[in-house]
Amino acid sequence: MKKILFFQKSKFAGSSNEKAFTLIEVLIAFSIFTTIIFFMTPIFQIILSNKGNQIGLQAMEWEVFCSQIKKEIRLSTSADVVSERLILTKDIETIQYEKYGTNLRRRVNSTGHEIILQNVSKYSFMILDNAVKVTVTDTWGKDYSVIVYSLVNWNAVT
Fold first, then answer.
1. Is residue 91 a contact partner of residue 77, using CB atoms and an 8 Å limit?
2. Do residues 122 and 103 lie in contact, with contact meaning Cβ atoms separated by under 8 Å?
3. SS (H, E, C) 50-98
4. What's the confidence (pLDDT) of residue 11?
5. Residue 62's closest CA among 12, 155, 137, 122?
6. pLDDT in tens, 96-148
7. pLDDT of 15 over the 80 cut
8. Are 79 and 86 in contact (CB under 8 A)?
9. How far is residue 99's CA from residue 113's CA, in Å, rounded to a whole number?
10. More confident call, 49 vs 145
């Protein structure tokens, strides 16, 4: 006759190893989670503070734009605003300032594509007595304005 032997596992032998393994998994997952959170906080601060940097860069870009347009207006022989474009005449050159998307661009003799000011939502050019007033609103809602006087008397030339 054959004897059938039944082996019975201890109730506590397998379950104690499984609990220890589960605890190790939880500790590893928790350490990975805390590491991710630790690095995410500075990343969010950098992303949120980037807007302030962009506004500062926009102000510096406005100053460069003012310097460039002042030089051209002062040396131009005539200025006119036609369909929201500033057209300056200087000797045989015609210089146009116009909006292109969210940028202001400069074109010489209707050719070229020189971006001179970025992030522009609204702009206007206005001819005053021997001067040009430029008003710009950037995409963050800040207004900029400059009045540039010509060295050449436009009224005497035309």
1. yes
2. no
3. HHHHHHHHHHHHHHHHHHHHHHHHHHCCEEEEECCEEEEEECCEEEEEE
4. 54
5. 137
6. 999 999 999 999 998 888 999 998 999 999 998 889 999 999 888 889 999 99
7. no
8. yes
9. 11
10. 145
When pLDDT is cut at 50, 70 and 90, the band that residue 158 belongs to is very low
Look up residue 139 and give its DSSP letter.
T
Q: Give the torsion sign (CA, 97, 98, 104, 108).
A: negative
Could you give the 3-state DSSP secondary structure of residue 144? strand
Tokens of 62: 């406005």
User: Tokens for 102?
Assistant: 């969210």
- Residue type present at position 83: S
pLDDT of residue 134: 94
Specify the pLDDT at position 129: 84
Q: Give 152's DSSP letter.
A: S
Q: Which of 117, 40, 129 is nearest to 147 (CA)?
A: 129
Please compute, for residue 143, the number of CA atoms within 13 A of its CA located in the half-sphere on the CB side. 5
